[in-house]
Amino acid sequence: MVKICCIGAGYVGGPTMAVIAFKCPSIEVAVVDISVSRITAWNSEQLPIYEPGLDEVVKQCRGKNLFFSTEVEKHVSEADIIFVSVNTPTKTQGLGAGKAADLTYWESAARMIADVSKSNKIVVEKSTVPVKTAEAIEKILTHNSQGIKYQILSNPEFLAEGTAIQDLFIPDRVLIGGRETPEGQKAIQALKDVYAHWVPEDRIITTNLWSAELSKLAANAFLAQRISSVNAMSALCEATGADVAQVSHAVGKDTRIGSKFLNASVGFGGSCFQKDILNLVYICECNGLTEVANYWKQVIKVNDYQKNRFVNRIVSSMFNTVSGKKIAVLGFAFKKDTGDTRETPAIDVCKGLLGDKARLSIYDPQVTEDQIQRDLSMKKFDWDHPIHLQPMSPSAVKEVTVVWDAYQATKDAHGICILTEWDDFKTLDYQKIFDNMQKPAFIFDGRNILDVAKLREIGFIVYSIGKPLDPWFKDMQVMS
Ligand code: UDX
Ligand code: UDX
Ligand code: ADP
């Protein structure tokens, strides 16, 4: 029986291993983590991450061929294939701070593998890492090898949160990079055999190590670039009277461009896009490729611009001040169907509004009050380091309330911001909400999910990203 161990029971490691166990009953899969609370949660009824369909998959296999454990060393030493899926946040200090990936967790995992291994291993990079990380890991392992042979593979994960199970069940492709030696090819084949249990052969792509590592960064950069492109267009649409939804529909019909990932929004978030582009920028700079670095940097700058633009629109339309006004924030997660708030645009929008002294009432169906307070009180770049939590700033606590209901959040509010496209927000009773709000009542739809005409009929002043503006906003623009 092949034994797999995955180090890191997070958003990537957890769902990916659950699906491998589900699809390969003949393989024993152990997911290990240094976080006792995370492992306890994986072994409980309340899994540590919200992901549609995940519960069923875990329930089917847990205790049979899927195990969650804190006995990291035991499971690593017993495994044939070790996936490393630890966090690789952006460095906050030292060389490359703010751009380079922090490989501390990766390095400590690699050293631990070298310490406890008693048989040959295939070590698989699952977390997104800078190109050439595999080489560094290989060096750590071989310099501490004690006669044991290691093969390093890069097998980047392309799942998106909120659709992880579906993405894992029917992936567009599985990418495996390895050394071009006979041993490297054998290792690739061993991993290919795992995926071949459910993924058609023609969807499994094999490349060299560096291509696989770079492809992951490139894919995320291309996806983020599409969003920044359409968001840049949204600003121009508002200025000209064009409708961004009509523009993206027309543009996306060109099969060379394609229709997906062209939704204008308040900005992209998530643990990958910004981090991976910063990483790409850093790699370009290290290689003296300044123009290439600047090209990709612009994707992040447009994203920051979009978030600022949204905040400015709110403040300017509400008579140039939100001081003391209650603003309801509906949605805090970086996208729907997840409770994840890493790099969510909601953090920057809320901070922008708090900077103008607004009072915020926040509701998200999946994000806890603790998480929101933590996100709003932490400095940029600290978010991925829960261990180094800073004390909450008293102003964040005072001006932010987190509630468990959209009606409560919007009661007596001057304005509503939609920051996550949760389906539930489409079917709220907006007449009831309007009746309980201060007038004029504003809605700022940062995800373009609401029926603008209907809301205007009720009496709301509505702003949607990249859509023809209400006369109100044009008047206020002139004022500000
Ligand atoms: C383009 C648009 O494709 C067309 O829809 C529009 O109506 C007019 O402009 P055209 O300029 O005729 O058409 O040719 P196109 O095939 O788009 O190629 C433009 C240039 O891009 C060429 O120099 C081509 O060699 C280059 N190209 C194209 C690449 O370098 N790489 C590619 O992958 C595709
Ligand atoms: C992304 C990649 O899609 C995935 O392949 C990779 O493995 C990890 O990074 P994820 O961050 O989970 O996945 O979610 P994704 O669906 O890509 O959304 C990222 C952000 O872009 C979200 O904030 C989303 O709201 C935003 N977005 C997405 C838009 O603003 N417009 C769009 O058209 C699509
Ligand atoms: P991702 O979104 O990439 O899956 P997460 O932060 O959700 O990232 O998950 C990474 C997990 O890796 C965390 O639960 C963390 O505790 C775990 N981890 C980090 N370093 C180690 C290590 N050396 N050994 C075991 N687990 C680790």
Structure description:
There is one protein chain. This protein has 480 residues and is of the alpha/beta class. It has two domains: 197 residues, 3-Layer(aba) Sandwich (Rossmann fold); 257 residues, Rossmann fold. It is built from 19 helices and 14 strands. It has a six-stranded parallel sheet, with helices on both faces. Helix 6 links the parallel strand 5 and strand 6. The longest helix has 32 residues. Bound molecules: uridine-5'-diphosphate-xylopyranose (2 copies) and adenosine-5'-diphosphate. Adenosine-5'-diphosphate binds next to helix 5.
Write a concise keyword list for the protein shown above.
Rossmann fold, 2 domains, alpha/beta, six-stranded parallel β-sheet, binds adenosine-5'-diphosphate, 480 residues, 19 helices, oxidoreductase, 13% strand
What name does the CATH topology of the largest domain carry?
Rossmann fold
Ligand inventory reads: uridine-5'-diphosphate-xylopyranose, adenosine-5'-diphosphate
CATH architectural arrangement of the largest domain: 3-Layer(aba) Sandwich
Q: What structural category characterises the helix and strand content?
A: alpha/beta
- Compute the gyration radius: what is it? 24 Å
**What overall form do the CA principal axes indicate?**
elongated
State the low-pLDDT regions, or none.
382-391
Supply the number of helical segments: 19
CATH top level class name of the largest domain: Alpha Beta
Strand fraction: 5-15%
> What distance separates the N and C termini?
69 Å
> Quick check: average pLDDT?
94
Q: What is the percent of helical residues?
A: 40-55%
The overall number of domains is 2
Major β-sheet, in short? Answer: 6 strands, parallel
Number of DSSP strand runs: 14
Q: In what order do the strands lie side by side in the largest sheet?
A: 3-2-1-4-5-6
The CATH superfamily of the largest domain turns out to be NAD(P)-binding Rossmann-like Domain
